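[Protein data]
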Amino acid sequence: QVRLVESGGGLVQPGGSLRLSCEASGISSFILRAWYRQAPGKERELVARITRAGETSYVDSVKGRFTISRDNGKNTVYLQMNSLKPEDTAVYYCYARTEQVYWGQGTQVTVSS
């Protein structure tokens, strides 16, 4: 059974940083891993993705502030979030795709003073 477990969310002041982690179990080879987020009243959006080949891409609103990376040995993907803004407040979801799609349970990120 494939499981994705996120951690690292929390409350942070504007301008601060957080690092989200997503550890996968049950499978070690994915075509794609990514982070999505969903703010209240809004649709879920793709924030960052990393392919099996290591290519990364980001939504425009986080470019230069967020970095997606992975540790294959730990089967974990990270999202380093710097210079956080109140509009980054959302539930962040880990995503992974093989022949199927898998989601984590979500972790809350709140950016507020």
The two ends are 40 Å apart (CA to CA). The first strand starts at residue 3 and ends at 7. Residues 66 and 81 are 4 Å apart (CA to CA). DSSP finds no helices and eleven strands in the chain.
